[in-house]
Amino acid sequence: MSISSINYSSSVLGSQIRNINTQLTDLSTQLSTGKLSQNYSGMGTNEGFAIASRAQLSNIAAYTDTITNVNVSINLANTALQSLTTIRNTVQTGSANTAQDLNVNGQTVAQNTAAAQFGSMVGVLNTQAGNRYLFSGTAVNTQPVADAGDIINGTTTQAGFKTVLAERQAADLGTGTGRLVQTSLPSGAVQVSEDVAGSPFGLKIAAVSSTLTGATVTGPSGSPVSFSVNLNGTNPNNGDKLSVKFTLPDGSTEQIDLTASTATPTPVGSFAIDASVPVNPANAQTSLNTALNTAITKLANTALVAASAVTAGDNFFNTASSAIGTPVNNQAAPPAPVTGATALSGASPSDSISPGFVAGDTITVNGTTLSFVSSGATGNQLNVGDSIQTLMSKIDQITGTSKPSTVHGGSITINTDDAANLSITTSNTGALGSLGFASTPVTATQPPLRIGSSPASSATTLVNGSATTVKWYQGNDGPGSPRSTAMARVDDSVTVQYGAQANEDAIRKELQAVAVFGTFSTSPAGQYSGGQVAALSLRVTQALTKQPGQQRIEDIQTDLAMSQNTMKDASSRQTQAKAQLQTIIDQAESASPDQVASEILSLQNALQASYQVTSNLSQLSLVKFL
Fold this sequence. Notes:
By secondary structure, the chain is of the alpha+beta class.
């Protein structure tokens, strides 16, 4: 017989020792790395939770980066807005100052300050965060505001604000009496009339009242509007008064009061009545005529000039091109953006707006009424089930636009060649709101307006000046809130809006007021120069004062602060979630140092015992065995 030798490597004992060594190696790795395994297969059954948690941690890290970047943009925007607030307060304080000392350029110190601050405002509005302009809306790569010098002085091909202001002043002032014509009638009466019916320029006669004894006052009436005063050969009593109220181009009103007086010399704001014996009433009529002309000339060369400058600012800065409805959804399930084919009424879930129009509703466009009927629409009628495109075609026929209105991305754009006169109203505001127009009347802010003919002093119309005038705002001017032009997801179900546009009302009105104040100049030694600057200063002060219902710079800052608060809350939640997710990962993947050390000690003892047995066995011989 043969006796096989004992082979240690193939013995059960040797296999056990190798297994113990392998376990010791794994435990040593766990002790040094703190991980249960270096691959997923060794992590155990809970590794699936760890993998999911790690994915969530990755999302949170991305959100954290987004929040950091958005906060940088908001902080820069807020700093810019705070600078605008400081500039507003500085210019307002200067304009409210009663000092009207003019320098050689026909401006006050406050006006010089405003001119410098205008350049600062333009620089602030052109602030960038990295390569992104903060006040351009979605046009982040486009400088939002043209260069300050171009805005004021123009370019080689386009007029700047200084030119627009000068043209408007010439058109409003006319020959020096605010486009009013004063004549003596054969009856002896004095008549004052507007020079051209429907002209947008100059003083507009609003009302006339009189306590003149024995006098006949007619008007204001007629086309062009006029009024007349005839003393009828009667000498008014001392203290009798004639009052004439005028509307100025900026919508403000001014009143001339002329009081009959026997005082010598005749006080300012009065006209002389004849005190001779015998009395000659014709002298009173002549004095009234002269006093009326003097008062009108003064009003035209002071308050009217100031109002003209303010209106020129509106003509230049308050511009847009169309009436745009904000994005809306039809009532189909699931909701979808409206298209030209979307019906104006219908039962859910049909492709129609909700709420929709019903029979009897009306839409009035520039004075022409469109009526809704159940069916069989003709002429200026619409069926309740007609499409949005049909409605827009009807509107385009009325406005006569050369560019058809459109629906794109759920937004309705109503185009018109005469944006200044567009007006759309309805008997069903809810249905019109479903088309994206939240308020009525629907209007299209006018393009830059320029004097329609030359010389400006006799012009009678304003025309679209887009092609010949510097466009001061160059950023995005689309539908929706300016805040929605920049959006970021900062949590799984949370987004924030932090966009801004330099043409927002609060910003545009401040820029406009500062430009008007800083650009206007007059003759340093002119008879009415002080009155012009005083009247302008009053209007600029009012323009820079918050009015009820108007947006203010602080409102924009509040919107941005709310976005930051939302991100702060999201960040706090994410910090808590990170700790919980990390705990899940640690529990699934981490090795307890104490437990590993205990297991290593136990294995080392077992290994030592195995080696001892192995050693004893290795010394075993047949003789010892027997």
